[in-house]
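Whether sequence alone determines local backbone shape is best considered at the level of individual chains. When preparing material for the folding task, we compiled for one chain both its residues and its backbone structure tokens. The sequence in question and its structure tokens are set out directly beneath this paragraph.
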Amino acid sequence: MKSKINFTWSDAIIEALKQNNFIASLKKLHEVAPQIYSQHNEIKGLTPFKTINERVQRDDRFVKLAPGLYTLQDKLKELPKEFNPLTQSKEQKENVNHISMQALLLQLGQIYNYQTFTPDKSKKYFNQKLGDFATISDFPKFTYDRIVAT
């Protein structure tokens, strides 16, 4: 039975962030928030992902840490120093953005059922390694070795 309390998409996103140690990718929010929301309300409309995207951009309770990566405003001070935008150096911010973009591209490849590869398997994307997002471990030999090496 659905509750009669006014449970919003923002509430579902907050719960999803709590379940992921207050840091979650947009992909993770797309997976978890609708499940949480549907426990309280019927999902109406065809675009719940767009609603989630809109909420994390407009609701002041959410903070974008890097492209496609979010946390709660009131949890910023509790984040590890290297991921906290309040304490990161310019170099750390650039590194997090670079790794975030790599992770997002790997996830996008998975969404479209492509084989995905990264040469940076051990680089950390918060609580996961980039290699965890790759679907193949070796780059395909599709041409001459010197070209593949490049």
In short: The first helix runs from residue 9 to 19. DSSP finds five helices and five strands in the chain. Strands lie at 24-25, 62-66, 69-72, 124-125, 128-129. The longest strand covers residues 62-66.
